[in-house]
Amino acid sequence: MPLRPEQFRLTLCSAVLLAIAGCGGGGGAGVADSAVVPTTLPSTTNVSTTVVDGALNNALVCMDTNGNGKCDADEVQGRTDVAGKVTLAVPNADVNKYPIIAVVGTDAVDADHGPVTVAYTMSTPADQPGVVSPLTTLVQQTVASNGFSTADAAKAVQDATSINTSLFQDFTKVTAPTDGSISAATVARMLVVTTQQQSSAIKDTVGTSAMDGKTITREDLDKAIQKKLLELLPSILSKLSDPTVREAITPADKETALLAAATALVTASGLTPDALPTLVAVNTQIATAPTATPEPAPVALVSLAALTFTDASNFYARHFTRSIAQSTLDVNKTYRFVDRRMQNIAGNLAKWGSGGSPARNSDLHWNGAAWVNCPINFESVATVDDALGNGGSDYCDKLSVDTRTRASFSIADKTMAEVYAQARAAGYTNLSIADPVTALGSAVFPAGSLITYHRNTPVATAISYYPAGTLSPAGISNVASQYSAEVAAGGVASTQAAGIGCNAPDTSTNGSLATTLEGWIATKTGTPCVYMQGSITLGGVTYPSELANEWWGNSTAGIDRVGASSVPGFYTGRSWLRISFTGSGTNPVTYYACKERYSDGSARNCSAIGTGSYTITTLGDARVLSLNNPPAQFAALSYDKVWVERGGFVYAGYQSKKTPNNSARLNTAAATALLTQLGMPVEDPSVPLALTLASYAGIWDGHDTSKTAGTNTVRMTVSRDGSCGTDCLLELNPLTGAYTMTTSLTTCLVTACTYSGTLNFLTGTGTGVYAASPLNPEVLARR
């Protein structure tokens, strides 16, 4: 570490000739002293910074050279003036080397919000000292937590918040946007209020003991809060999009709305006094560089990464496994691992590799060179931890490239109930047991058991889509739909003739399958069909619609629904986020928030909430449409919506956001013991994962290749136990996908017919042929 000014002076003193009696005064040296003391002291650079929520007066600002999150007496420091400004005389060797922190105590005054009532701390990266704010604090925490460069960390925070301007500027001097995009000042204030509320909720833990015996300090709380804010960003943005915040007119009303929103966030955040002992121990271990140790001999490993357990016949589990060969490091110090998932519903066990369900193992993503997916037993790659305890992984061929920090603790001889309760209290909800008292009893973890607290942060995520629903109108679950030009034009239905425009027959359908982006874009005009006031009766109570009952599904594209369905009525209480391709400028987009009709979930009575644009990019043999400048409401989603034109269809796609993910994982000894206690199967990392009958669960639509889509359709419903419903008898080999089906469906043209072929689990497609007249080949697709 470079010498601080005080240390430099002491070093000079030690180098003075032994004939000199003293250094710096005393000893009777008189004029002789002044003759030998160097006239040139270490040169410094003035580093100016501004501390803002509003401009903060009397905040203590310093260069945090030891990284402990506070201003120590030997660190260069100063107090801000009424404009929030301070200049630090920083030794040249330290300029842009250490982060700057601002301790905002209760003796500070915020120019916009008055005296500070709850103390908090902010920071900024070493190479961006000009402004210290709540937004720069997010960036610095991302740098510290994940080892990101400042630029990459800033991009990650911008992606998470939808702030389109620089995070390192004084946002109090910037005019608020008028296009519906997020206001940096509003986000910053929400972060401060949430920080203060969270600090008040856990302040009494200062002075108590962490899980590792360390005494919890004020700085430990600051670090825990700042990490939690990164995780809460989607929820914070969702709160900011609430009408009570957006529509607040006076500063006092906005502050009241922000305080209420922050209180709700903190109540649900999971950062409680019970969580601090574990979280502080995790943060301490991660922050302490480990002592270098020899590489261990490769062994077969299992890590239980997720568990949802109801009983031995109903559960979900996810394991990461490594055989001895996969654990052997290559020349780049990387190892390989396999993702294994299983789901048991009513005793029917399905196994697969990636994706949230067996069918989603067929999702395709762009790996930079091709559209790919990952079959079961696909080997992802990870690096060993470096000297700072950081590692990384390339999951599923660049589906997600992550950085990783982790801390491990022995749980040998501890009861399973105690360890489970401790992890849950700390907010690690990836492990969930419906009745832990009964399920775990007094069982104890054996020798060698470890729990590891992981924090994964994506550096890059791939554009992906689910290639389903292309065979017939019955299978449009993931293919974008569009209406005819006359329906898309909208209008007042009562002024249009029967069978025309908003009264056309296809308004009662989902429209037709989109085949090109341009054709699809042309139908998203943002012009609703307006009908007469409607109503719905629920429980004997009649609920009317608004006077103008507007249907927007005809001329907008759906993004997702947000909010919870609260009370019955004509509308559900949730909002549809939607878009049209209208507005000014190149490739314009208008963003909407719409009501959701209770009866069918359709979008009604939309309001514009922002404007932006779209970009179309060519990726291999596909073209991808992505959105720019989405409003605050969209930041609450865990993904960005895209549309992929490929193979003659336009698919709804997605790109996961780069949001940190925390998980508590059990090693081989601990996982084996827990799963055995619960009566669940134990994974053997040396035996490849094999599909089961229930892995094929879902609907496989088929049609005769000699006829147009939608005619002579045969639908084979493979249920979770491997059968195909009441209409047929099915024999299915899960290892090969070969099947034989006997059905009495009327499409057979005979009393019964045999239908045989092969289902491809990974691609979600299949082939078959009738063993009855007419003998025509069939194609199938899973949806």
Explain how this protein is built.
This protein has 783 residues and is an alpha+beta fold. 20% of the residues lie in helices and 33% in strands. The chain has 15 helices and 44 strands. The strands form nine sheets. Strands 11, 12, 13, 14, 17, 18, 19, 20, 21 and 37 form a ten-stranded mixed sheet that branches. A ten-stranded antiparallel sheet has the order 16-15-22-36-35-34-33-32-31-30. Helix 6 (218-240) crosses helix 8. The chain is globular, with a radius of gyration of 31 Å.
Core attributes:
alpha+beta, 783 residues, single chain
Topology:
Layout: H1 5-15, H2 31-36, E1 44-51, E2 56-57, E3 60-63, E4 77-79, E5 85-91, E6 100-104, E7 109-110, E8 114-115, E9 120-124, E10 131-132, H3 134-146, H4 150-161, H5 184-202, H6 218-240, H7 243-246, H8 251-268, H9 276-287, E11 301-311, E12 314-322, H10 324-327, E13 334-345, E14 348-352, E15 364-366, E16 371-372, E17 379-383, E18 390-395, E19 400-410, H11 416-425, E20 431-433, H12 436-440, E21 450-461, E22 464-465, E23 481-482, H13 485-488, E24 491-492, E25 512-513, H14 517-522, E26 529-531, E27 535-538, E28 541-544, E29 549-551, E30 557-562, E31 571-580, E32 588-597, E33 603-619, E34 622-628, E35 639-646, E36 649-656, E37 661-666, H15 668-678, E38 698-704, E39 714-718, E40 728-732, E41 738-743, E42 753-760, E43 765-770, E44 777-782
Parallel strand pairs: 1-10, 11-20, 24-26
Antiparallel strand pairs: 1-5, 2-7, 3-4, 3-6, 6-9, 7-8, 11-12, 12-13, 13-14, 13-17, 15-16, 15-22, 17-18, 18-19, 19-21, 21-37, 22-36, 23-25, 26-29, 27-28, 30-31, 31-32, 32-33, 33-34, 34-35, 35-36, 38-39, 38-44, 40-41, 41-42, 42-43, 43-44
